[in-house]
Amino acid sequence: MTLFHLKLIVTPLLMWAISLASRRWGGLLGGLLSGLPITSALVMTFLCLEQGTAFALGAVPGALGGLAAVQATYTFYLFATRKLGIAPAVLLAMLFYGVAAYAFTHGGNLYLSIAVALLLIGVLIRASGREPRPDTLARPRRQRFWEIPLRMVSATSLLMVITSLANWLGPAASGMLAPIPVIAWPLVVFAHVQSGRAGMATMVRGNAIGAVGVIAFYLVLAGLLDAWGVAIAISLGMLCAVILTVGLAAALRRG
Asked: Which of 9, 29, 32, 118 has an alpha carbon within 20 to 30 A of 207's alpha carbon?
């Protein structure tokens, strides 16, 4: 099995599983799962295998800059949708992401990106907590049969584009695109359409909590990739991400 076939199999299966989990157990769990560095781990794994570990390490600062831009985009979307409809807010949020990602990648540095990402994570957790709670008694809108397949296709297509253009983009731009929430964004928008602001805010909250784990993933990867190899570094990075995400979610729930 080639890497091309692996991408075609793994990415849509992940989107399918997270979509079903979100439908069954709620938006917060879906947000937590999609907020974990699943897409980032896939992109970084493929970059390591196709371009080499030096290329992947060069992509880490850009990835953290991209992560800060992702949190800025969620913040923009959360507040913009108080005044705008979903469609214009999504388009403006995507444009905002491009500007923010370029600014963080070319005008910032590793530590600034981490600091801004953590600040925005705090803003998102606080702001989403002030949104109305989902009405558990309300009857949810009927799911369309094409919704999950559309999410699967969009996630797979973007992953293929990012990894296929890595040579042309270079490590900085490839890293900047790695944390694009190709799984989370469709989930957030579909949650907004299906459940209103309450469902969207719950999904955004889960993604913000998961982003703390994403930061840990990249830092572990940067520290261990050369010394311990691809498999161990990415596995340990994912383990740290899961532990931090679960711990933070539990602490916020108790609070």
From this structure: 9
% the chain with pLDDT above 90:
11
Q: How many CB atoms lie within 10 A of CB 57?
A: 18
Three-state SS at 24: helix
Domain boundaries, the chain: 59-132+144-254
Q: List, for residues 200-245, the tens digit of each pLDDT value.
A: 888 888 888 888 988 999 999 999 988 898 889 999 998 898 888 8
| Whole-number Å distance between alpha carbons of 184 and 24 | 16
Q: 159 to each of 133, 142, 214, how far by Cα in Å?
A: 33, 29, 17
| Residue appearing with tokens 């913000």 | 208
Alpha helices, H only, 130-183: 147-164, 166-177
Residue-wise pLDDT tens digits, 153-211:
766 776 677 666 656 667 666 666 655 665 566 677 777 877 778 878 888 888 888 88
Q: How many CB atoms lie within 10 A of CB 211?
A: 30
Side-chain-facing half-sphere of 94: CA atoms under 13 Å: 9
Contact 81, 34 (CB under 8 A): no
Q: Which residue has the tokens 């890497």?
A: 3
- Tell me the longest C-alpha to C-alpha distance in the chain: 53
User: Which residues does 115 contact at the CB level (< 8 Å), separation at least 6?
Assistant: none
Containing 112, the helix (H) or strand (E) segment is helix 110-129
